[in-house]
User: Fold this.
Amino acid sequence: GAVVSQHPSRVICKSGTSVKIECRSLDFQATTMFWYRQFPKQSLMLMATSNEGSKATYEQGVEKDKFLINHASLTLSTLTVTSAHPEDSSFYICSARDPSSGYNEQFFGPGTRLTVL
Amino acid sequence: GQNIDQPTEMTATEGAIVQINCTYQTSGFNGLFWYQQHAGEAPTFLSYNVLDGLEEKGRFSSFLSRSKGYSYLLLKELQMKDSASYLCAVMDSNYQLIWGAGTKLIIKP
Assistant:
């Protein structure tokens, strides 16, 4: 099946610094990738939809200048949390849609646990 | 608005059967997904229904009724490792996934 990797799996940073998270589709080309955030005991919250070669589409309430998304190739999307604050501490998960999948299902990366001190 | 409802938490006994319900109201419908998520991990795909009826896959089955906006996930012969959150998600007319809040399933010996 399709595999999505995410790096790093865990990061701790100081308040005010920026953190970059990478999401890669390993065995398929993903024209569309999704970035989610999940707070403890809550469901996934879609932050943005990333399309290769174009600007990401952000969900209402998500600051595009704070959460920079770049989808430069068909296998890589990055999320940069700029000037991170403790309230940005969360579990960030990316997913990618495999166009060859008959289900249009999304394959998820393993997630990145961000802790901002 | 779009809405997915599922119970917050359920408890069942090892070896038993449990049914997790999901009701939805979305703008368009392009299929319903069930995902399993263990604590601290990303979701993993369990099933997909786009037509009415029951889809069986080993110990897990998923049912869909589009006219009722209703689905359930049936887990048989429960094992301790089935303790997890189960997420119901509907793909709307824009092929966007709308997620339920998840049902935390607790399995007791």
In short: The mean pLDDT of chain A is 91. The interface with chain B takes residues 6, 34, 42-46, 49, 91, 93, 103-111, 113 of chain A (CB under 8 Å). DSSP finds no helices and eleven strands in chain A.
